[in-house]
Each structure stands twice: as C-alpha cells, then as structure tokens.
Design a protein that fits this description.
Layout lengths: L6 E7 L5 H11 L5 E3 L8 E8 L6 H5 L3 E9 L1 E3 L8 E4 L6 H9 L3 E5 L8 E2 L2 E2 H6 L9 E14 L2 E8 L5 H12 L3 E11 L2 E2 L4 E2 H4 L4 H7 L4
Parallel strand pairs: 1-14, 3-12
Antiparallel strand pairs: 1-3, 2-3, 4-11, 4-12, 5-6, 7-10, 8-9, 10-11, 12-13
C-alpha cells in the first residue's frame, strides 16, 4: 500500500453498493493505504460521495460538518420498516391528502427540528449499530437529534409520489423525513429514490462516475484528485 495520493476524490456513487464498498474498491484498486469518506450514503442512494485519500483523512471531521443537498422522491400511502423501498411493507393506507395538503405539511418541516434516527441506520447505541439490532428484531430507544432543514422545494406532485429537493444539516436522515411527512399526513410514506446533489462545496457535476473508476489507472486518478 502506498500513501503518495492525498486529497479529495468526489465520486458519483452507483446504486446497490455501500459507501464502504466504494472506499474498499479505491483502497485496493489504487493501493492507497488510507481512504475514508465524509458522509455515508445508503446502498439504494446515488450521487455525491466525498472520499478522503491519504493525509486528507485527518480532515474528515471538517467535511462531515458541512450541509448536504438532495433530490428525493417519496411515495405516500405505504410505510416500510426501514422508511425506504428496501424495507418490508408494514402499512398501507388510502391517500386522501390533496396537493395543497402535501405542500402545507411539507412547509412545516422547514427550519430546526428534532429527528429520531431510524432503526435501520449506522448510528451506534451502546456500542451497537442500529441496523444490526434491527436485523435481530430488536428495537431500542433512540435519542432525538437536532437538525436543520434549510431548503425544502417541491418539484412535482403526482399522488402518491412527491418529488422534492432539500438542503439539510449534517446527520439528517432523508428516509426519516419521508416517514415523518407520511405520519403528519396520516397515510404513511417511504423514500423511493434519493440522489445527493452536493456535499459541502462539492457538487455532483464535479463527481467521477463510479463506472469510470473501474477503468482508471493511478495517473488518471491522480488527475481527478482535488488537492487541499
């Protein structure tokens, strides 16, 4: 393993892979000793994943603090145990809300609030990952965390689907936001699609498609690294 490549690599993560999968691939393929990331993405999510290479891994705390921007789609009338389409369906209800109801309800989520992390998440409680407990059918009390939804703009409503963009503070679970919106509307909801458009100052337009990483050599990778 070598440590001569240092800096930031912005990747457009593909679906059906974890953030750790991307980290592991870059570490092994390019023989880089230290590789980390600045904010995980769920396996079903796509978009900006900021990788920290070499000496840049020491700056992970700085980048984890930054805001994130997402494009998301939620489906009303169906609730899952993971709050996204990867989970098991646990509730189906008729959607009686109008477009105006949806807009008014979502407007109420702007600003500061306390959000309870979903059970299916990487957050630790008493040293255990919540998703590990959830797999065993164990549900534990989770302490709410203060978050800030700085922007919440509806792009399109075709009930039961709602598409929107949001800018939020670190630690915000968009899956949980979808679930909370469904609860407020009284019909349940879950996240069906999520793309991270920006992480801090790193936009999707500057990201290297994951598929391109598979064909890169170290020289080409070096050209894609942002020096800090």
């Amino acid at each position: 393993m070598r440590d001569d490549l240092s800096g930031i690599l912005v990747v457009d993560k593909a679906k059906a892979m974890t953030s750790h999968d991307v980290v592991k691939l870059v570490r092994r393929r390019f023989a880089i000793k230290k590789v980390g990331h600045a904010g995980t993405l769920d396996p079903s999510a796509t978009g900006v994943l900021v990788l920290l290479l070499g000496k840049a891994t020491k700056l992970s705390g700085r980048f984890l603090e930054e805001d994130k921007e997402y494009a998301a789609t939620i489906k009303l009338g169906e609730k899952t145990d993971s709050a996204d389409s990867d989970g098991n369906l646990i509730l189906v209800r008729e959607v009686r809300s109008s477009e105006r109801d949806v807009k008014d309800t979502m407007a109420g989520f702007l600003g500061e609030m306390e959000q309870i992390p979903p059970m299916v998440s990487a957050k630790r409680v008493n040293g255990k990952r919540l998703y590990e407990l959830a797999r065993k059918g164990i549900e534990v009390k989770r302490e709410p965390k203060r978050i800030v939804i700085k922007k919440l703009e509806i792009a399109d409503i075709e009930i039961p689907f709602v598409r929107f963009r949001t800018v939020c503070s670190k630690g915000t679970y968009i899956r949980q936001l979808a679930d909370d919106i469904g609860e407020k509307l009284g019909c349940g909801a879950h996240l069906t699609e999520l793309k991270r458009l920006r992480s801090g100052s790193f936009p999707l337009e500057k990201a290297v498609p994951f598929s391109a990483l598979l064909n890169m050599d170290r020289e080409r990778l070096n050209e894609s690294i942002i020096r800090i």
